Amino acid sequence: MSEERRRESYMIVFFFIISISILLGAVLIWVGLQGAPSGSINSMMQFLFGIITIAVAAKMMSDLMKTREKEKEHKYEVVTVLQCKNCGVKMERPTRDGEYVGMITEEKCQKCGTSSMIIRFIYCKTPLEQAVS
């Protein structure tokens, strides 16, 4: 299972748990209000726990939404650095599937035109580096 799919399934489970918590809080408030005319301590405690449960669920929902927004913000670009075997000039481009460090590619050098370049580095650009380039 891919990392993105796993995160999405966790998000669904968390949304389900939060929804159940909100429902439980609403039930506790309703039960507490039903017993309020009698003035029992149990009905007041149920009402209070209902309010607290909904407040905690709302905070969890808020945190979950912030986490999702941050994940969308931090998309990293994976970059490959190629070096010409003939003249040594370096070139940077997006990484392709199946590449590895030391692999010899059939890409042409921009300087000398030789079609033999070697992959020297594969790395992730941070969002700051992406903004600068």
Itemize the secondary structure elements and their pairings:
Elements: H1 3-34, H2 41-73, E1 77-84, E2 90-94, E3 104-105, E4 117-125, H3 127-132
Antiparallel strand pairs: 1-2, 1-4, 3-4
Helix pairs in contact: 1-2
The radius of gyration computed from the alpha-carbon positions, rounded to a whole number of angstroms, is 28 Å
Uncertain runs are: none
Total number of beta strands: 4
The percent range for helix content is 40-55%
Strand fraction: 15-25%
Mean pLDDT: 85
Distance between the termini: 33 Å
Order of helices and strands: HHEEEEH
Structural class by sheet pairing and helices: alpha+beta
* Count of all domains: 2
Outline the biggest β-sheet: 4 strands, antiparallel
Tertiary shape: rod-shaped
Placed side by side, the strands forming the largest sheet appear as 2-1-4-3
**Number of separate helices:** 3
Brief synopsis:
The chain is α+β, with helices and mostly antiparallel strands. The protein contains three helices and four strands, in the order ααββββα.
Structure overview:
With 133 residues, this protein is an alpha+beta fold. The protein has two domains: 3-73; 77-132, Rubrerythrin, domain 2 (Single Sheet). The chain is built from three helices and four strands; from the N terminus they run ααββββα. It has helices at residues 3-34, 41-73, 127-132, and strands at residues 77-84, 90-94, 104-105, 117-125. Strands 2-1-4-3 form a four-stranded antiparallel β-sheet. Strand 1 and strand 2 (90-94) form a beta hairpin. Helix 1 (3-34) runs antiparallel to helix 2. The model has no long low-confidence stretch (mean pLDDT 85).
